[in-house]
């Protein structure tokens, strides 16, 4: 099950998650947390879904058969954190990957609320996979190099996150990921 934003261009969000899930040999079950209008020029518009809509989608997925894992991307609004936590209650034994989407590649914010308000959801995840800008925003620390990347990731595990896989694609020089 993939929970995230619906990108009608197919380049990101649920469309990208579904492609990867299929490539891994599984059947994707997408759940939209937000609707977007975006393309190569960036995000023109976006809106989080209502909590009831998100919960109804998750219930539909869970009623169709077993779920092997949960991937969470764009949440969109701090008001969806608790509904997502309720919706995935009982799935704690499954791998839960949370890739906290905070802004579009073009720089437009994609979260209504403070990044720290995602911490309850991050604590439920098996692994959280922020890129460097997201890592810095969530940790509240500047992240520019491998030492600051390590410090920010450690600050998050000190706040109760099980594991942080910091993606180093924004580093100067060769990208280095840090677990």
Task: Kindly describe this structure.
The protein is α/β, with parallel strands linked by helices. Helix content is 33%, strand content 17%. The protein is built from six helices and six strands, in the order E-H-E-E-H-E-H-E-H-E-H-H. It has a six-stranded mixed β-sheet. Strand 1, helix 1 and strand 2 form a beta-alpha-beta unit. Helix 2 runs parallel beside helix 3 and helix 5 crosses helix 6. The longest helix has 14 residues. The radius of gyration is 16 Å and the shape is globular. The two termini are 24 Å apart. The model has no long low-confidence stretch (mean pLDDT 95).
- In which range does the helix fraction lie? 25-40%
Question: How many whole angstroms does the radius of gyration measure?
Answer: 16 Å
Q: Uncertain spans, ≥5 residues at pLDDT below 50?
A: none
Tell me the total number of β-strands: 6
Overall pLDDT level = 95
Largest sheet composition: 6 strands, mixed
Spatial order of strands in the largest sheet: 3-2-1-4-5-6
Proportion of beta-strand residues: 15-25%
Structural class: alpha/beta
- Total helix count? 6
Structural shape: globular
How are helices and strands ordered from N to C? Answer: EHEEHEHEHEHH
Topology of helices and strands:
Layout (H helix, E strand, L loop, with lengths): L1 E5 L6 H11 L6 E10 L2 E7 L2 H14 L5 E3 L8 H7 L8 E3 L20 H6 L2 E2 L3 H8 L6 H13 L21
Parallel strand pairs: 1-2, 1-4, 4-5, 5-6
Antiparallel strand pairs: 2-3
Short structural summary:
The chain is α/β, with parallel strands linked by helices and 179 residues long. The protein has helices spanning 13-23, 51-64, 81-87, 119-124, 132-139, 146-158, and strands spanning 2-6, 30-39, 42-48, 70-72, 96-98, 127-128. Helix 5 crosses helix 6.
